UniProtKB/TrEMBL annotation:
Source lineage: Bacteria, Pseudomonadati, Pseudomonadota, Alphaproteobacteria, Sphingomonadales
InterPro entries: RNaseH-like_sf, YqgF, YqgF/RNaseH-like_dom, YqgF/RNaseH-like_dom_sf
Domain YqgF/RNase H-like: 17-117
Its biological purpose: Could be a nuclease involved in processing of the 5'-end of pre-16S rRNA.
The protein, known as: Putative pre-16S rRNA nuclease
One annotated Gene Ontology cellular component of this protein: cytosol
Underlying gene: ruvX
Biological source species: Sphingomonas glacialis
Length: 154
């Protein structure tokens, strides 16, 4: 199941469970994990993209090792009107290709994730190199935290 409806996603996970958040870029995939009770999301690994099957295998191994019950993928909508963008279609295609892992997938609006994380890192005086290393996995945590906050509110 792939959905943008948080109520539908919540319904297939009635007892919660660990979730993985993904910020899918063209060069990297930022990952984050949350606890089974959906309290907090934390940045995890940064996966450098290669071929899709290798990327998927790395994610599948992480999912199995962490006993993940669902996947949250950032959906990059247009900032001004929330409409779909070419990057949105790319994220949807990524989700379709991950569907055979058998986990429910929630597409979470990620319009402000990278901007918010970058601002935070600049405020913390992180160097440009440090920001480049952290921004995608921190964005994944931001996306995942937004999703779990919304899911808990249901």
């Amino acid at each position: 199941m792939i959905t943008t409806d948080r109520t539908e996603f919540r319904a297939v996970l009635p007892t919660g469970g660990r979730l993985i958040g993904l910020d899918v870029g063209t060069k990297t995939i930022g990952t984050a994990l949350c606890d089974a009770g959906w309290s907090f999301a934390s940045p995890a690994l940064l996966i450098r993209r290669t071929k899709f099957q290798k990327d998927k295998l790395a994610l599948a191994e992480m999912i199995a090792a962490q006993q993940v019950k669902g996947i949250v993928i950032g959906l990059p909508l247009n900032l001004n009107d929330g409409s779909e963008s070419p990057r949105s279609q790319s994220s949807r295609a990524f989700a379709r290709n991950m569907a055979d892992l058998g986990l429910p997938i929630f597409l979470q609006d990620e319009r402000w994730s990278t901007v918010a994380v970058t601002r935070t890192l600049i405020e913390q005086d992180a160097s440009r190199a440090k920001r480049a290393e952290l921004v995608d996995k921190m964005a994944a945590a931001y996306i995942l935290q937004g999703a779990i906050d919304a899911l808990v509110a249901i």
